[in-house]
Amino acid sequence: METLYTSLIVLLFLLAIADLVVGVSNDAVNFLNSAIGSKAVPMRTILIVAGLGVLVGAVFSSGLMEVARKGIFNPELFFFDEIIIIFLAVLITDILLLDFFNSIGIPTSTTVSVVFELLGAAVVISLLKLYETGEGFSNLRQFINVQNASEISLGILISVFVAFGVGAIVQFISRLIFSFDYQSKLNYIGGLYGGVSLSAITYFILLKGTNSITFIDQNLIEQILESKLWIIGISFFFWTLVSNVLIQVFHLHILKVIVVIGTFALALAFAGNDLVNFIGVSIAAWQAFLLWQEAFLASGVLPSQFLMDGLSGEVQTPVYLLVIAGGIMVVTLWFSSKAQYVVQTGVNLGRQGEGQERFRPNALSRTVVRYSVFVGQTFSQVLSEPVQEKINSRFNFPEKALGYKKGVAKPAFDLLRASVNLVLASILISLATNYTLPLSTTYVTFMVAMGTSFGDRAWGRESAVYRVSGVFNVIGSWIATAAIAFTAAGLLSLIIWFGSYYAIGILLIIALFSIVRSAVRHSRRVKFEREHKKFNKTDIITINEMTKESSENIVKIISGVNDLLLDVVNNLGYHDLNRLKKSLKTQEELEVLINKLKDNIFYYIKSLEDTNVEASKFYVLTLDYLQDMVQSLAYITRSSHTHVSNNHKNLKFSQIRDLKSVQRDLDEVYSELIKAFQSSEFDSIEQLIINEKKVLNKISDLLQKQIERIRETENSPKNSKLYFGILLETKTLTKTSVALLELFKEYYEEAKQEF
């Protein structure tokens, strides 16, 4: 029996390692957003600073493990075997839940997830205990720490609104003071700004550290905390002096210093606060095992007879376990692509200016934006015109404000906003810690970033509906986190209760399969985005470069069109509905690709040399032809799928044979066309146009042939409709290809002159 439970504890620690990986991937958004979004320092430096903060914070987290042992439920009322079931259900749920949100790039709260997982599992086990003993379910409150769980939930909810509101107000005032052209002002008041910011961050680090350090005398810690006003005053004086020296003597950018130190501070807070969410459950299980093992060796008490009174007291976590956990977190931070994906969500929603929007607008976001515009217009009428002009002048956004350089990706927002994000998040978390108020570091940092974006007028009329939709999506996922965590952990604990070790094995296999599948899908998405990243260039300035870029686009689209047309014709011949469903998915990917290209038209044209109007026209026409090709193929794919899905008669063998003949002819033309664009050798364009026109003639003959069939033998109107539709759209597809070739022929001579 002892060996069995030893194996379960080992399993729980292995699950804790997996939980660390997925948890860090999700929570990296807490402390990386501002530094990465503003490009304050190189990425390597950001990761080094954040890694140091995580390691230090991991050591500081020793005293914060109580929430897993006694924060949500009363352990003295549970037996050892019941506690193990709760912890197993919590860890398996947490890994799957966080991995899911990582995969879709949504930052959620590991605090909320673990709290509601513990709550869900404990509630179910408590109800089962009450049922077995015949007690009424009204006694559930004695098992669950309802007040603590309610306070945590309410505190987290309030912190979301406070963080957004404070972020918006402070950023608006900061921009009024500094504007976007803040560099000259920093020479005069940068020292004062640095003093305020760095003293706030220093107090934040000191408060977070002293609240959890276990190897410093408690009396000294109490003296430090009682002298906080003196500490803030001395820190302000010291950092103001240091900031002035850094600015005036060493000519350092004080905002970069604030961002780097702030990143370290938030990384420290993340590890100090959230490490309990990843390893607290496993450590609590281990401590429970040690308590039972001691009793078992002394008196032979069974797991189902040993109450966990010992978990109610103060139990310190060994420092070496914290260091190991910190090391795993740092490695994950450096190498997890999912962490980078989650960070992109916050950076994208908070960026200054336009760009590709990730989230689609919905009815709620449209309504909010519409009424916000109305309120803004009403409020502006209260202010005099000179005041409005003065305020608007502070929000003029020159490209140099983000350090924009041709050919180099510009920051998502400037250093002023990045520093405000970090300082405000530090202050809010410090205040909550000082007054022992529960909050989620993820929610606070994310909502501060969204609030500063709003206050900085980053959500303009062109982007507001998308950004608001994104924020609502993230907040909705937070609500879903609590509901899913509670339900899933409760369900898993129920399964383990009745299924015992067989259920544990099956659940582990399911969890492993789910994580592997998620990793494979994420890898495919990363590969897809990497392949299409070239479509986001912002420094194409000549017609020669435009021709090359268009060639790459054409190769990608035409290759997809050619392959998909072959699949659709073959699948239609086999009358295979499942394969046609896959063809539909491929078609949707082509449509997404062409839409991304068209979304970038404005930015391509914007980046061209002022005199290169013809290159702009060339690029627009090229994309228009490619879109026409994709739309023609979309009709062929969808009509074929609909025909088979409705169980209509198969096309006749002769009809399939004719379609395959046209497809083969097109394949020969497209293969040569792809080679031409890949090699940028367009001398064969004339011959390709001739070959395409032959295909058009062939399609015309087949149309005439089908008309004769209808008059003589054809008796299926659905078949005729599908066959005519495919031929006519293939004809349009071919005509568009000819037009595209003629366009390149027209511009080819001009492109050659630039070589």
TrEMBL record:
Record field: transmembrane: 47-65, 77-98, 110-131, 152-174, 186-207, 228-247, 253-271, 278-298, 318-335, 415-435, 441-459, 471-495, 501-520
InterPro entries associated with the record: Phos_transporter (IPR001204)
GO cellular component: a single term: membrane
One GO process term, biological-process aspect: phosphate ion transmembrane transport
One Gene Ontology MF term: phosphate transmembrane transporter activity
Record flagged with keyword Membrane: yes
Localization terms from the record: Membrane
Membrane topology: Multi-pass membrane protein
UniProt entry keywords in alphabetical sequence: Membrane, Phosphate transport, Transmembrane, Transmembrane helix, Transport
Sequence similarity: Belongs to the inorganic phosphate transporter (PiT) (TC 2.A.20) family.
Stated name of the protein: Phosphate transporter
Species this protein is from: Psychroflexus aurantiacus
